[in-house]
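tokens incoming
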């Protein structure tokens, strides 16, 4: 989770090997959806 929410920050995180990007302030619906999509991959 990061305060960096610009499109280039998201892209940099994904290029660095992160599975997803979650910015602050936290959108709980988006966070839960992201976590569920990652859990389903396991």
């Amino acid at each position: 989770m990061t305060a960096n929410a610009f499109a280039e920050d998201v892209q940099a995180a994904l290029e660095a090997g992160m599975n997803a990007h979650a910015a602050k302030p936290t959108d709980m619906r988006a966070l839960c959806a992201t976590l569920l999509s990652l859990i389903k991959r396991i």
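note: The chain has one domain: 7-40.
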